[in-house]
Amino acid sequence: MSLPSAIIISHCNQRRTMERTKPETNPSSFLRNKSILIGATAILALLMVWSLRSNVSTSSVSAKKPKATVASYGGGWPGSGAISWCANIRQKTFYDDPNLSYSIEKPIRIWDEKRRRWLNRNPRLAAGARRRILLVTGSQSSPCKNPIGDSLLLRLFKNKVDYCRRHGYDVFYNNALLHPKMGSFWAKIPVIRAAMVAHPEAEWIWWVDSDAVFTDMDFVPPLERYKDYNLVVGGSPELVYESPSWIGLNAGVFYIRNCQWSMDFMEAWAKMGPQTPNYEKWGHILKSTIKDKLYPESDDQTAMVYLLLKEKDKWANKVFLEHEHCIQGYWKGLVGTLDNITQNYLGLEKKAHGLRRRHAEKVSESYGAQWELYLKAAGYRKDAGKRPCITHFTGCQPCSGKHNVLYTGDSCWKAMEKALNFADNQVLRNYGFVHADLLDPSHLSPVPFDFPS
Question: Which of 67, 354, 399, 433 has a 20 to 30 Å separation from 211 between CA atoms?
Answer without folding.
Answer: 433
